[in-house]
Fold Calcineurin-like phosphoesterase domain-containing protein.
Amino acid sequence: MYYAPAFLQWLLFDLTSISAGIWTNMIAFVCGFGLVNFFAGKMKMFQYTSWILDLIGKIPYFYDLMWKRRSQIKFTLVMTLLTSVTMFISRDWIVVKHKTIKIPNFTADGGHLRVAVISDLHAGASVYTTQIHQVVEKVLENQVDAVLIVGDMVDAPVADIEDRVRPVLQLPVHAPTYFVTGNHEYYYGDVHEWLRFYRNGHITVLENESAMLRGVCLAGVNDISSPKSGILNHEMDLPKAVQRCPKNTSQIVMSHNPASIREFQVDHPKELSKIDLILSGHTHAGQFYVVIPVVYWLLPYFYGLYEIPFGGQLMVTAGSLYQGPPMKMIGMSEVWVLDLIGE
């Protein structure tokens, strides 16, 4: 497809990514019934477990799902169609969610700071200008002190999707806007091309750096995967990011992958103990309903607000858009407006 026109390449990508989303939903139900078929047969061999099966089987529909392949296939096809269509329709339904987070001894001017948090836009792939514009419009509807973009903004090189990302450049006009890299920034060409694009658009890129925001030290670290980029001195470096934070000042850290906290805990406990709030994305909260059990089990932090070691807090967003298949769980394409107040 190298010599095919760009529109044809994107069309085929959309079709195949939708197919991949449908397959993801379907294979989960297939595997689920595979387990049912395996364990139901084993359970029949023992009196007590057989009694449980008989009890469940008194409901005719459940009996059919346990023992009749035709019913299992029908259920799989119907649920695959239902979940896929629902998630495809809800993918661009951008929801603004509000949350108040209390921070002890908060040093913000007036004891209050309001920030908009967006993450995981994944412009490129199956995300076009329209979707980026919708996210930006939702942010612009809210009066905030700053906009924080927590990585994974793009899924293509600058030359291919510059126009798709351009709506984001409206954000610095609305409020000071800050950005840190996610893992996807390193997948396409030279990450510095995107960082120059953001800086030229007046977005502050925090590469293991900090900036003062209304009495609060806002720090940002490069993504945990950045050492694999091959770029010299471009690893995730928490001590460097917070070294210029004034003493006794509240600290907020932007770190795309919440798993970075484990590394902070082991390698930088002193710095972690001074952090009041870490903002992350990356997990998409699974993105697919059928993926939630696996993602929840595998990841140390899944979605929402957590207490972390040494007394700080972690906020993990499900992201504003989606990766790969243009599908997302209802109400999980989100923009967070956080009211940070003293406690």
